[in-house]
Write a structure and sequence with these properties.
alpha+beta, five-stranded mixed beta sheet, 32% strand
Amino acid sequence: MDREANGRLSFLKGQAAEGQVAQAYERNGFEIVDRRWKSKEGEIDLVARHKEKLYFIEVKASETFDTAVHRITARQQKRIRNCALHYLAEKAGHLDVDCRFDAALVDSAGRIKVLPGALLAA
């Protein structure tokens, strides 16, 4: 498989994983308010709301949960936090919002493991 085809396959796997995770959150009473929200800082895979709290969710798909979690680098976490600040300023109009940063991992069997609060907010 050439590089372009491999990249396209990875993109499609990522989209499928995000869809699975979104459905899992919705089944648990969350409302998905944004998908793949972009700012100059980067992208947030999913933004969900439950009651008065916002959830910024980074989705990682890989062969195993362990491999997936190790793909979330400190640099990426910083970009997600900065992107979330832009999101709050633009969408909420202020930064004083109760929120949590989750990592949602999807393994090669399609199983989902959510790590609540795994991405540090500060």
